[in-house]
Amino acid sequence: MQRVIRLKRYAYALFLIPLVLPPAGLMLGAHYAVPDWGAWLTVLVVFGLVPLLDTCLGRDTANPGPDEERALLADPWYPALTLLAVPAWSALLVWGVWAVSQATLGLAGRVGLLASLATVGGAVAINVGHELIHKTRRAERAAGGWLLASVGYGGFKIEHIRGHHVDVATPRDTSTARLGENVYRFLWRAFTTNPVRAWELERARLSRRNLPWWRNELLLWWGLSLAWAVGFALWLGAPGLVAYLGIGVGAIALLEIVNYLEHYGLIRAPLPNGRYGPVTEHHSWNSPFLLTNLLLFQLQRHSDHHAHAARRYQILRHMAAAPQLPAGYAALVLLALVPPLWRRVMDPRVAAWRAQQGLA
Fold first, then answer.
1. Cβ neighbourhood burial of 159 (10 Å; 0-12, 13-18, 19+)
2. Helices 77-101 & 138-150 angle (0-180, nearest 10)
3. Considering the domain boundaries, does residue 264 fall inside one?
4. How many domains does one find in the chain?
5. Any idea which of 1-5, 72-76, 133-137, 188-192 has the lowest mean pLDDT?
6. Does residue 259 fall inside a structural domain?
7. For residue 113, what are the domain limits?
8. 201: CB partners within 8 A, 6+ apart
């Protein structure tokens, strides 16, 4: 166990690899005189190579014991890694918007670079932002808000914690995919309702605490996103603004597709009083594939995350009793984009889980 923990301590730094892939792809494309192909390198690695390596490297089901957990929590390396994402992603975003807005790439290359940057935005900016907003330290929560606002999704900080984590696996939750719902319908609901829900939740907080309108936290995060957009527009004109918006929309879409597969078809049992049973590890899909968990700070140990939302990534546990996904997130994102195949793979798993839980 100690050897595994030492290995994973440094392996979490693998999250930096996606950050260097977009510029590396352009360099390789220029070197081999195929710039438009090079722009797609990140997408090819994340959705092609990573699923293959997940299969080859296999699963990680090891959990730290109590003494090991204390040592992991005392080690400053782990929070430092997540905070490193703030300058690293911010630098890539500035470079990426500039690179897309230049005339050196054809249409296919620009689309590829946008898709690559959006992939990194979802995997790094939003994923690490998600890790940070759950923490108790104010600096970490602020860093998480910065990362989310950088892709125009600051409302996630409100809706995710006060909405999704409260209502997960119930009809009230807009971020829980219903059995039989395809990913495109789910994405439409996420894009159109989650920002509104964030606003309603924040307004309710202000009313409950009798606070003035200007204490609305969303004004800060949406204002920061607007500042990013205006800055790019002033610097690079319309191409810069379009590039920034495209990266943000793509990153948000990737996040919401991941949300789709994290809770697809899972429900909490209603109680006689009209409420729902407590959130447990049974209300999120677990995926133990090693490489993707390292790249995503163990996001795939999502069952434990929902059961213990403030638990830091380095001590998240594999939950063997939770419903299990058949592959890592990268492979399942592609599967979800083909609804008939997704339902063929996942609907029997949902049915088996519901039968095990005694749910209709």
1. buried
2. 20
3. no
4. 1
5. 1-5
6. no
7. 2-254
8. 158, 159, 162, 163
| CB 114, CB 40: distance < 8 Å | no
Instruction: Dihedral sign for Cα 178, 182, 183, 188, please.
Output: negative
Q: Is residue 298 part of a domain?
A: no
pLDDT given for residue 302 in this prediction: 97
- CB-neighbour burial class of residue 87 (10 A; exposed 0-12, middle 13-18, buried 19+): exposed
DSSP reduced 3-state for 174: coil
pLDDT one-digit tens code per residue, 248-263: 999 999 999 999 999 9
SS3 for the chain, per residue?
CHHHHHHHHHHHHHHHHHHHHHHHHHHHHHHCCCHHHHCCHHHHHHHHHHHHHHHHHCECCCCCCHHHHHHHHHCCHHHHHHHHHHHHHHHHHHHHHHHHHCCCCCHHHHHHHHHHHHHHHHHHHHHHHHHHHCCCCHHHHHHHHHHHHHCCCCCHHHHHHHHHHHHCCCCCCCCCCCCCCCHHHHHHHHHHHHHHHHHHHHHHHHHHHCCCHHHCHHHHHHHHHHHHHHHHHHHHHHHHHHHHHHHHHHHHHHHHHHHHHHHCCCCCCECCCCCECCCCHHHCCECCEHHHHHHCCCCCCHHHHHHCCCCCHHHCCCCCCCCECCCCHHHHHHHHCCHHHHHHHHHHHHHHHHHHHCCC
Which two structure tokens, joined as six digits, stand for 51? Answer: 């699923």
* Inside any domain, residue 237: yes
Tens-digit pLDDT profile for residues 283-311: 999 999 999 999 999 999 999 999 999 99
Per the listing, tokens 């959130």 go with 279
Phi, psi at 210, each rounded to 5°: 55, 50
**pLDDT recorded at residue 1:** 61
pTM of the model: 0.96
Which has the closest alpha carbon to 5: 255, 317, 262? Answer: 317
